[in-house]
Amino acid sequence: MNWIIESIAANPGVVDTLAAWHHLEWGELMAPWSLVDARTELTECVVANGFPATLVAFDELRQLAGSISLIASDAPEFSEYSPWLASLYVAPPFRGRGLGTRLIDALVNHAHQQGFERLYLFTPGSPEIYRRSGWREIGKRPIGDHAVTLMLHE
Asked: I need a labelling partner for 150 at 20 to 30 A (CA). Which of 75, 91, 117, 119 fits?
């Protein structure tokens, strides 16, 4: 598939859809993070000049397929780390086609262009997709009642 990956700044009309997807996916994990909070964070990326940033992916028909973000802080539990790869999301109809890896690699490249040599992320799920893109595990930590894997890319 020939994915189209662009900045959300060039696609502000996707903010509401992405906010809904993100809140549905991570609202419980990040409680009391609200739908309004999700929308606000994405809107900040629309007006930013490279950081924070959200990259959005479309299929060849320009259907919104996923997103990924570069942000300063992803959770107060990890305030000692910055910046973060956050909110990797691939819509269910597009999963299993390599889009997640493409988004990860595009965000790492964007972060390097912004002058960041190290990136962090946490995942409550499988870290395998990130390992395949050069990330390494640096620990397991709690967020609320959930255990997450903390990872680093250098």
From this structure: 91
The domain ranges of the chain are 4-153
> CA 62 to CA 39: how far, in whole Å?
21
Q: What are the pLDDT digits (tens) for 75-107?
A: 778 889 999 998 899 999 999 999 999 999 999
Distance CA 88, CA 103 (A): 8
Cα–Cα distance for residue pair 45/7, rounded to 1 Å: 9
4-153 belongs to CATH 3.90.1150.10:
no
Q: What is the pTM assigned to this prediction? A: 0.90
Q: 111: exposed, middle or buried (C-beta count within 10 Å: 0-12, 13-18, 19+)?
A: buried
